[in-house]
Write a structure and sequence with these properties.
The protein has 191 residues and is α/β, with parallel strands linked by helices. It is 44% helix and 16% strand. Strands 4-3-2-1-5-6-7 form a 7-stranded parallel beta sheet, sandwiched between helices. Helix 1 packs parallel to helix 2. It is globular. The protein starts with a strand and ends in a 15-residue tail after the last helix.
Length: 191
């Protein structure tokens, strides 16, 4: 069982983001869940990998060739898969994972999150997608998604498919209970 974590190549200005990332990684490892992530050893990505590895967990990094040097590919992970493009990275992360969690990050994090949500909406996968809303980081985004729904651009069932919690245990529990609206019953059960 593996969860893909979408997160920043920066650490952010508040140490709470790093602490939350490390706590999430340790929690997932404690539940016997492996981690798939962007493959870097910098920013929140590096925090996730280092915390999971220190806790004895499986960590698979997926990184494009062009970013291997820029994001400083993590040489200590269980497995580092080098791909040709960002599209291949996202596809491989989806293929290797049974669910997805976004942590604070920038454009790349949002790109991965929204592409994964779009694929869920279109029925390309039936896996749960969650946000760990650390220190209110995603509050404005969630308000905007509600605005998209109230103006008729996002169906309520699609809005509801994004699972948001502030605590790793509650997030994982909600992800375990997830039933996709387009794909029938989620076959792979999380621990």
């Amino acid at each position: 069982m593996r969860i893909a974590i979408y997160c920043g190549s920066s650490r952010g200005l508040d140490p709470v983001f790093q602490t939350a990332a490390a706590d999430l990684a340790r929690y997932l490892v404690g539940q016997g869940i492996g981690i798939v992530y962007g493959g870097g050893n910098v920013g929140i990505m590096g925090v996730i990998a280092d915390a999971a590895l220190a806790a004895g967990g499986e960590v698979i990094g997926v990184i494009p060739e062009s970013l291997l040097a820029k994001e400083l590919g993590h040489s200590g992970v269980t497995e580092l898969r080098v791909v040709r493009s960002m599209h291949e990275r996202k596809q491989m992360m989806v293929d290797l994972s049974d669910g997805f969690i976004a942590l604070p990050g920038g454009f790349g994090t949002l790109d991965e999150l929204f592409e994964t949500l779009t694929w869920l909406q279109l029925g390309f996968h039936g896996k749960p997608v969650g946000l760990l809303n650390v220190a209110g980081f995603f509050d404005h985004l969630l308000t905007f998604l509600d605005h998209m729904t109230s103006t008729g651009f996002l169906k309520p069932e699609h809005r509801a498919s994004l699972i948001m919690e502030t605590d790793p245990a509650r997030l994982l529990s909600a992800m375990q209970a997830f039933q996709p609206h387009t794909c029938g019953k989620w076959i792979k059960e999380l621990v």
